[in-house]
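Appendix B, example 12.
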Amino acid sequence: MKRREFALGLAAAPLLTAAMSAAADPVEGKDYTRLGQAVPVEVPGKVEVIEFFGYWCPHCNDFQTVLEPWIKRLPPGVNFRRIAAAWQPWQVFYQKLYFALEAMGAPEGIHQKIFDAVHRQGLHLENPPVLEAFARANGIDPAKLRETINGFTVASRLGIANQAFRDYRVDGVPTLAVNGRYTTSPAQAGGEKQALQVVDALIRKSRAGA
């Protein structure tokens, strides 16, 4: 899996750990990247945070453990959303699956259930009979799901997602984008919790108009 690798190397002040230093004052070019050109956000007036992820990605699966509690603590002025990623042809199905379920208003908790199905149960949801059984077990109409996966709405979302990858210069997942201006990741920040600390700092920076 293609992922950026960055050395942590944080120069912590006396009595402070590297993680605490990153949370207080993350360093541009090391803990996060500033985009050369800002990307428009989905909801004007709110600070936007995007998680680029893939159901097929084991690192994204692991990240959910710390990400989900963090999302629940976000203030009302922050708009969090996800964009499913794919680089290999076989990954596109999982990209379509996310956008289809989103369009259908899928049941709460289905996001984690897909991760569990792929990474804990070893299910190949790209196999139609397996997907049908999974959908029925979770109260989703299999025929409607197939129709949506192959429909215009998902095709449009794929185009938007692929443009977002280019705009944000995403070359690995999980990657987090903040307010159309910054990106970071567990790989860049030196860990999952550190990445979220960097995002917290970038949210504060964005609210301050920086």
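The first helix runs from residue 18 to 24. DSSP finds nine helices and five strands in the chain.
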